[in-house]
Amino acid sequence: MIAHEVNFDGLVGPTHHYGGLGRGNLPSQAHGGSVARPRDAALQGLAKMRFLLGLGLRQGLLLPHERPHMPTLRALGFEGTDAGIIDRVAKEAPGLLSAVSSASAMWTANAATVTPSFDSADGRTHLTPANLVAHLHRSIEAAGTLAQFRVAFSDRDHFAVHDPLPATTQFGDEGAANHSRLTAGLHGDPGVGFFVHGPATSGAFPSRQAALASHTLASTHGVDRAVHATQSRTAVDAGVFHNDVIAVADRDLLLVHEDAYEDLPAVTDGLRDA
User: How far, in Å, CA of 246 to CA of 64, rounded?
Assistant: First the structure.
């Protein structure tokens, strides 16, 4: 069977701004308050997608989410018209307004964990939207991502769209940014799911991906060849908040920093043996 990889990008939304909201994301914190140009950013994103299409890649698009996220503000007790609520929150809780206005859903690496049909027990492609519970501004993305997936991947003969994992830190899940796939052959050959979770030890910054989340995803997706690795505390404290900041994998190649994992030799041996 011929297999194709599809790249998905998120379109930058009109409320894009530099809120400095990502704890442990040093560039995010350093650029908080900088001037943002949402329209230019959206056009740049579309140009990048068109460029990839021109190279012959298959390109998908995820839409911006509703922002400001009024359901969150109303759930927190704010009442009145949308405009009135936004005006009040801007005065009383500007940090909250920044969070519910974040366009961070553009980062599709955190949208979901995806297992291709070649690696799942039932022969379907499995998708689980990430709960992103580590940050308020990201946690409100799960419902919107799930809704888009229910439409885009509605053919249940070929796709299984799961609900996000429970919204607790024990199941903290940041999506494909902590999941890779390797195979000794082509993309259409059976592969190994490589799941990376954060360390259990405390440090300067919190771990975002929980071990329980990664193991649950491998189980619910029916992955029988899975390797799990623990990101090093050194990496997390240096601002490496996701595995894709320090490693990338494709087919039989894993490009990784020497300090990425707690036991790199054991990880590479496990991948070779899987």
Answer: 27
Measured distance CA(183)–CA(189) in Å, rounded: 7
Over the stretch 43-57, which tens digit does the pLDDT of each residue have?
999 999 999 999 999
pLDDT computed for residue 29 by the predictor? 76
Which of 176, 49, 178, 56 minimizes the C-alpha distance to 116? 176
Q: Which alpha helices (H) appear in 116-253, and where do they start and end?
A: 136-139, 142-152, 211-220, 233-237
Domain map (residue ranges) of the chain: 6-67+102-273, 68-101
Q: Which residues contact 3 (CB under 8 A, 6 or more apart)?
A: 116, 118, 186, 187, 188
CB neighbour class for 98 (10 Å; exposed up to 12, middle 13-18, buried from 19)? buried
| Topology of the domain comprising 6-67+102-273 | L-arginine/glycine Amidinotransferase; Chain A (3.75.10)
Mean pLDDT, rounded, for 231-259: 95
User: Which neighbouring-strand residues pair with 60?
Assistant: 8
pLDDT in tens, 247-259: 999 999 999 999 9
